[in-house]
Amino acid sequence: MEPVSDDPVPQGPVPQGSVPQGAAAKDVTALRRFNRYFTRRIGVLDDRYLGQERPLGEARLLFEIAESDSGVSLRELRVRLGLDAGYLSRLVKALRAQGMVRLGVHPDDSRLRTVEPTPAGRAEVAEQNRRADGLVSGLLQGLAPDQRRRLTDAVTTAQRLLRLAAVTVTPVDARAPDARACLDAYAAELDARFPEGFDPADLVGPEEVSGDAGAFLVAYEEGRPAGCGALRRTAAGAGEIKHVWVHPGARRLGLARRLLDALEGEAAARGLRVVRLDTHAVLTEARAMYEASGYTEIPAYSDHVYAGHWFEKRLPKV
């Protein structure tokens, strides 16, 4: 069952230093050309970003630190920004020496060091935001209103697709904490949406989606679980897709479709020729996604208590 709405979008991510099948050289060239133009246009190449006395790396880190009201752990910053631990340490040390931030210890875990902005740091971020708003406003003034709307739509789409491209979908042990956390959230959402509620006992057991029996996939965004899905073998040459779920903060990226594609890939790699699934009558967005993904509604193939619609898809040979 799938409780979220998602738009079908291209699959990622792109391994560094390679051009995967389906990514034409002209597409790679176009994106790199845009990156070069955009970074130059907003002053990223200047060692005094936005005219302030610091390069972009320090400015961006200070901005991220100031986004938290009560401080943020260095570990979270490292994951969020994708920074090397040594480089992050040097940046924090520089900001601390300038009186922009102060270090502390996480209240719930003394092993974690935290960092928060000082009043001077908050004042600088406020000025940074003022200058950045002015820069963008100046750029937009060169466009007519309809052109601004088109640009806004374009960058919103670009951000959504880049977020999706950065997500990784990985097989994990169904007993692992990330897998159980996703299933717990999935069950809680269905319990709230189904008129009759949802019994967590209906969730697949780890043994049903492990080894030869099947697979459990978790999607990760910036190191955090953002969704899941399961595949279990049901008969010779056939499998069933279960529990496709996306965290509310990662919806409308196309991640549900990405998980569905990955589960189909797992099925095909295991020699399965057909996959089936069912969904509850209230999950209209799930039915729409399945139909858009090539699934055909079929008669009931099980007496699953929460099922109101059943679907099937034939898979190509690998």
E-strand count: 10
Shape: globular
Instruction: Report Rg.
Output: 23 Å
Q: What structural category arises from helix and sheet content?
A: alpha+beta
Major sheet strand order: 4-5-6-7-8-10-9
- The secondary-structure element order is HHEHHEEHHEHEEEHEHEE
Instruction: Quote the beta fraction.
Output: 15-25%
Could you outline the blueprint of secondary structure elements for this entry?
Layout lengths: L24 H17 L14 H11 L5 E2 H8 L3 H13 L3 E6 L2 E9 L1 H22 L4 H22 L1 E4 L5 H17 L20 E8 L2 E12 L2 E9 L8 H15 L4 E6 L4 H9 L3 E3 L10 E6 L4
Parallel strand pairs: 7-8
Antiparallel strand pairs: 1-3, 2-3, 4-5, 5-6, 6-7, 8-10, 9-10
Question: Describe it for me?
Answer:
With 318 residues, the protein is an alpha+beta fold. 42% of the residues lie in helices and 20% in strands. The chain has nine helices and ten strands. The strands form two sheets. It has a seven-stranded mixed beta sheet with strand order 4-5-6-7-8-10-9, sandwiched between helices. A three-stranded antiparallel beta sheet has the order 1-3-2. The chain is globular. The protein starts with 24 loop residues before the first helix and ends with a strand. The N terminus is likely disordered.
Summarize the structure.
By secondary structure, this protein is an alpha+beta fold. The chain has helices at 25-41, 56-66, 74-81, 85-97, 119-140, 145-166, 177-193, 255-269, 284-292, and strands spanning 72-73, 101-106, 109-117, 168-171, 214-221, 224-235, 238-246, 274-279, 296-298, 309-314.
